[in-house]
Every structure is written in C-alpha cells, then in structure tokens.
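Table S4 entry, non-specific serine/threonine protein kinase.
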Amino acid sequence: MEISSLCLNRKYQEYATWNIGFGRIPSSIGNCTSLTLLDLADNSFDGLIPNTIVNLKNLQKLNLAHNALTIESSTLESSFINSLTNNMHLRRIVLSGNPLDTMLPMSIGNLSTSLEYLWLTDCKLHGRIPSEVGNLSSLVALRLGNNELTGVIPNTIGRLQKLQGLHLQGNKLQGTILYDFCKLSSLFELFLSGNELSGLIPECLSNLTTLRNLSLSSNRLTSTIPSSLWSLRDILAINMSSNSLQGSLPFDIENLKVVIEIDLSKNQFSGYIPDSWNLQSLEYLSLAVNRLQGLIPESLVSSLSLEFLDLSHNKLSGVIPKSLVQLHLMYFNVSFNELEGEIPSGGTFDNFTARSYVMNKALCGAARLQVPTCRTGTSKRSRRPILTLAKILLPIIASMCILPQMYRAIKHCLKKRKDPLLTTNRTILYEEIVLATDGFSESNIIGTGSFGSVYKGAMKEEKNVAIKVFNLHPERGLRSFQVESELLSNTRHPNLVKLMNSCCDDDFRALVLEYMPNGTLDKWLYTHNYFLNLLQRLDIMIEVASAMSYLHSIHVIHCDLKPSNILLDEDMIARVSDFSVAKRLGENATMQTRTMATMGYMAPEYGSSGIISEKTDVYSFGILLMATFTGKKPTDDMFDGEMNLRLWIYESLPHAVDRFIDVSLLQSDQEDIAAKTKCVRSIMKVAWFCTAESSLERKTMAEVQFELHRIKSRFLIDTELIECEEMPREIVYPRISYQELKLATDGFSERNLLDLGEFCVVYKGILKDKRIAAIKIFNTQRRGFESFEVQSQVLPFIRHRNVVKILKCCSDVDFKALVLEYIPNLSLQKWLYRIYPGSNILNFLKRLDIMINVASALCYLHTMRVIHCNLNPSNVLLDNDMVARVSGFSVAKCLEKGIGATNTTTMATAGYMAPEYESMGIVSEKTDVYSFGILLTETFTTTRPTEEMNRRSWICHSLQVVDTVVDLNFVHDGEEHLAAARRRCLRLILQLAYCCTAELSDERKTMREIESELVRIKKWFLSDN
C-alpha cells in the first residue's frame, strides 16, 4: 500500500504505522484527518517533514523517530514545530534521531496543554532552551539529550509539576544547577551529565524523594556534596564523576539502602573512606582518581552484591582486606596507591591480573601478579609436631566416618531390591537428610499435613530443597509416599513441582523436591502484607490450568487441588504440588476411592460417593478460581447453612461484582476498576461452569485454560497493557559491564562460541554467581543495534515458561549485549540433524511435546501482540528436561492496538516465511502460524524446507503415504512399519501443518486452535498405547 493512500484504508483511519518506508513523507498524509496515532519510526524517510500534519486535528501521538528527516527552519515561527501548536490533542511528540538541525522556537510553549512526552534526543538542536517550555504543564518526560544546546537551563522548568524524567545530558549547557529543580516533586530521573554546568549542587535536591537516578557527571561542579543528599533512601544510581568536587565522604552514605551504583571517580575527594558499607544492593562502586587515604574498610564485604570496585589512583595504605574474597567481584582495581602486604587469593581474586595492583608500595603474592613472593614466618620445626599428630589422627577419624556410611549403604542397597523406586536422580541416605534439615529442626519446617511434614534443607548438590518426610503410621503414609514418588518420577511439566531425590529406608521415607522460595498461594491470598495483583492471579490460574490439563492428558487426577498445594517459584510461576491422594485412571473415565480430600474443594460426587474423574479436579479448580479472586475461603464462617461460596457469587452476578471481588484488587489502581470488574466477571462465569452440580455439565481443563487465556487477552487490551507504543523505550535490567562479560567468556574465546548470526554472536559464559549464561553480543552495524533494541523492548514484558528469559543487560554507546538464561541442550535443529555431540534420537512423544511447548509460547506472544517473525528449529532451545524455549527475537515486531498487521523490511529465514511476508513484507499473527506449520512438518520428517520446490504441495501429497515421508528414526526395535497409532497421529499432524501453511493468511488457523489440536492428538496417542 502506498503511504499516500493510507487513509483510504479503513483499517488505518485512526492508527497508522509504517515499517518499510523510504523516500519522502507525502504531504497528502494531511488528508488522513481521523488519525489519532501516526508512527513512522525506524524507517528510512528523508526530506522535509510535511507541514500538512497540522491538518491532523485529532492526532494524539506522533512518532517519527530514527529516520533522516529535516524541517524547514528559515524562520523559526513558520517551522514544523511551530505548526504543531494547532494540534491541540497531542499527547506525545517523538522526533528523536532525526537531523533536524534547528533551534527550538519560543512557540514550543504553545503546544497542546495535554502534551505528556516531548522527545527530541539526538536531533542536532542548537541555540537555547526557550523559557516557554515551562508552559507545558502536563509534561511527564522531556528529553533533549545529545544535542548542541547552549545557554542556561530556564528556571521555568520548575513549573512542570508532573515531570518525571528530565534528560538534558550531552549538550553545552552552562550556568548552575537550578534550585527550581527542587520543586519537581514527581521527578524520577535527572540527567545533566556531559555539559558545562558549574557551581554548587543544591541542597534542596534531597526534597526529591521520588528521585531514583541522578547523573551529574562530566561537568564543572565544585565544592562538596550536600550532606542532605545522602538522605535519598530510595535512590538507585548516583553518578557525579569527572567534576571538581571536594571534601570527605560522609558516614551518611550508609543511608542509601537500595542504591545500585555510586560513581564519584575523577574528583578531588580527600580523607578516609567511611567504614559503613552495609549496602546490600550496591553493585558498582568507583572512587578512583581522588585523594583518599587510610585503609580499605573491611565493611565493604557487607555489600554482598558488589561486582565492580575501583579504588585506583588514590593514596590508600595498609593491606587489602582478605575478607573481600567473599564478594563475587568481577572487576577490582587498587592500582596506583600505597598498599602493602599479601594480595588475597581465592574466589574471583584468582581471575584478576597484575593491572589491578600495579604501582603500590609493597604488595606481595603470586608471581603471575608481577609482585615479590610473600615471606612466610612459620618454621619447619614448629610445623613438625602438627604434621606428626595429623598423620596419627586422620586415619582414625576417617575410619570412624567411613564404616557407618558403608554399613548403611550396604543395608540401603539390600533394601532397594525389596522396595524399588522408580527412576529419580539418585537415592540419598538418611544421614544426609538429617544433616540437611539440621536434625529435623522445627525452625526448618515449612509445612505439615496428615501424611507428614515438609522441611527446608540444604543439600550439597542443590542450594535449597524441600524435603517431604512421610509419617508411616498409619499405613496410608506409606501408600502416599509410593503414589507421589511414582507420579512425580513419570511426569514432566513446567508447572508441576519437580522430584530431585528420594530416601527409602526400613522405617523412613522422604522425597527431596525443588524448593519454592515464595511459598504457597494460600499465604499470598490470606496473609497480611502479601499482595497479588489481578494479572498475577490470572497468570497463576492459567499456569495451574496448564498443569491440570497435562495431568488429565496422562489420566492422572490430583484430587486435592487448593491454594496450599499451589507453590510459587522465585519468578512467581505456579507449581502444582502434593500428590498424596492422587489417582491414575485406567481405561475407565471414573473410579471410586475412600480417600477424602479437603472440605470445601471436593466435588459433590466425590464427597458423597467417593467417585472421582477429571471433572472432580475441574470442580476443585472452579472453587480455587473463586477463592483466588474473592480472597474468601470456601470454609469461611460466613458460609453456613445453605449459603456457600458458589451461591454467594452467583447472587451477585453479573452486575454486582464489587460485592465479592477482593477489595485489594480495586484499591491498587483506581484507573482500571471497570476493566478489572469486567475481567473478574468473566472469570467467575468460567468458575461457575466448572462447579456445576452435574459433572457432565462441567468444562474440561483444556477448555478452561483456553477461556482464561482469552480473558487475559481482553483484559490486556482493555487496560492498554499490550499496546506496544506504551512500552517504555528504556528498560532497567540488572546491569553488567563489558569487563564482566569479557571475563565471563574468557575474553570472548572461540571455544565458548555457541552461535553466529547476522545480527549477533552468542557465547557461553560463567557469571560471578557461578550461573552459566548465554551472552548475546550485537554487532555494531545499525541492524545489530536495532535488533538489540527490539529484544530489550519485547522480552521484559514476556513471562512464559516456554520463552527464553533475560538475566542482565549491557548497553554502552558502542557495545550492546543481553545475558540470557543458558539452555544446556541447545537447539532443536541440532537434535533433529544430530549436530549436537551425544544427542539421542528424539522419539515421537518428545517431538510432539516440543511442538506443544512452542505452540503455547506463540499463543502467549500473540496475546501480547508480539509477532516472532523468524520461527525455525535454530530458535527453539531445549532445557535440561527437554522443555522447549522460544528464542531469537532479533526481527520480532509488536503490533499496535487495533492493528492486525504491520510492514517490515527485515527478512527472516528462507523457507519459513509466509508468502505475504516474503513478497510484501507484511507480518501478522498468521505469519507465525505459517512458520509453525513448516516447523511442524520439519520436526516429524527431518527434511529442511529449502529442499522442496513447493513445500505445501509436498505435504499434501505426503498425507496418503505417511510411512515414506516421516523421519525413519521413528522406526524402533526392528519394526518395519510405523505402529497404527503413530501413523494415524502423524497423518493428523501433517493435516494440521497443511492448514497452517495456507496461501491466504485468513485461511490459516490461530495458534490457540493449533495448540488445542496438538494436545488432543497427544491424548489420542497416549490412549492408544
């Protein structure tokens, strides 16, 4: 579509985005008078910005960033910026990254009073900042950084009471830091670095209690830092480097309890470094190039998160504290001081080189550090008696320790022959559990139940674990142990708690499970000072529904679903636990049991007759939904006689949701009450159908999961949380420096290279906390940095078990990198084509599970309006449990609200692109569906898509001759033909792939339909085997 005819298309009458633009923006754009959003950012447009944009009277958001656009500036008052004063509805103007080469006109103060964002960073602006900018009373963010602005900062900026971000860095501004800034009570970020500001730092900046980032570096500031500034207890980053600040460092620095970065380097500070560094969040500390003297304080070891410490070029004396070895320092520099004594060894100190210690008074240590060897003061005579005593005692002590262990190990092995367990990682000894739980200390108990207790423990192999010790009296405790160990050994799902080890002794049974640091859902719903917002609760319910849907697909009934059996990991992702009374159904859809579950959550047929089925869990899930969003327990005192939780909610539906919704959900955000009420109303309708009296009238868990996903999508749209333009351009991650990345990858060594792509290279690295990570470094070409921007904007909003996660970020001017979780089994591509050394053949069920994982990830991405655009086997990674994680978001796109497709000039991998993507650059959700269809076919045929002239015709032809096209590795154990069940399922899979790859995008299925179909195929396959 030509941009000049844009407004003739009904789809673009209110919102217009363009992603493959070049040349000039036609003046006819002014005919699109209904436009409220015009986004032409990140294209190759050049020439003048047409003044006809002034005709867009309804325009609210204008984004022309990162093009090569200029403006007519012969007379300022007739310039483009001046013409925008006629657009009275404008809320956002983003022109950053264009060579406007102009001055800001005084008429800037006449822009819309509704204007919230004015971004003109890197636009070659010159001249002064007009004082009229203070008229923009609604301004939230003003960004004029990296220009050539001169003169003083106008004091009228102090009028902008709603201002949260002020970015004036990288200009030639003079004068002093205004006391008027102290009036900006909402200010969150103040960036004034890289100017020519002089004079004092105003004491009243301490009044800005909302301030989180203060950057005053590279100016001409003098005098001392006001003592009041250290009272900003919530500040995260302070950078005052490269000034002429004097005085001593105050003890009040310990008040900054949450600070992450402090940079006071290249000043004239003198005196001693204060001995008060209990700053738990501090990661970066630089006091280099000052005049500090005295000792390096031992208290630095209290800053447990410290990774970067630079004390070089001072006058420090004494020794380097050995306690610093306890820190996980990635960078350490004490060069050019007057230090003496032994250089500590061990920990990360073994990685530091001679550069960290050069030009000191009398340091000694290892020869590799280019310092003298330290002299030892211990004589051989004094050591001889100790060595003699050690030779006598050590064998005796060793024997005393080993013999009991040997006895118990032999006993344990004999016992295992009589009472075998299903496969776990390994069985452990009773003594190990005693040691891990500190003798079953009551202080380590994290849960109790009718069949035993759960302890928090620390094993050698794991940081923390949960140890479930079963009470073997009565006999049901032993039965519970056998049921739970059998089920957990044979189930694999990201939302089920994971079995690590087990212990099976004469009169002792225990399971070692992964530890969930955030406890139970019950705690978060019913304990004071714990709070989950609506989206968190909905995510948790979707995750529980996913786990239950999986269990039902393998005919397992949980039988005791309730908040205390839902655990939350460090990322608040749900894990279903406690299978003490679970049942595995045979061929029948129901069975009868005498084991009772928790009152209030049991289905009527379970409580009255002991009959259980999949619909029993559905009922419990419905009650769980009600409890989660009302904050009421089904056993609450208010429910007596005929009144119960279900009836109480029913009487308030559909118009009086506010009578039962958890009031804390409405108090947290007054703006979205209507959207929240609508969302909870829809959830309660699902809960109502789940808890029908007749089990036949209840939904299946797969249907429930689908409904909850759809409710979440609608909620995100209603609250504009998935409108990409609302995503902040700068995401704050835990930061990591270039030096740390270089150290983690052993100097970007080729032996650590994992992947090499068009936009980036990926290395394997070891972080300071010993975690293995994948470090993605983007090339310095424009496309590489654009890829970095795309991924750093998209991934922070993604929270899904099947999508790779960002851990840290490095964003320097000429270096961009993302630190991602390391996925040990590498890519699906390497497994399909046996590239990975030691890779086994992927059987049919594993391939199907992987495709379900990928489908689930794409469903989620599409609810967030994110299009992956480059789905192929190399972008599907496999973790330790062979669970798939979608990665490779280098060319991903995020759709604006109300727009179903967008254009792009960035091409993806040949063979996987949909026809409309390859020919016209149009991408939509159906683009990913096409790629998934190709991936689905490749996964089960192990034939690359580039090997066939017409892939879809080939699939169609192959549907009737399945045996001849599928991967021959499926034929196991001497079989000459595929089993009937596998052949039938493979035909269904190829039929699904054929539907995915329709030429017309409208004829393709949605990812939600595809996921449901794959789950159904898996269920059929399992039932036939």
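The longest strand covers residues 499-505.
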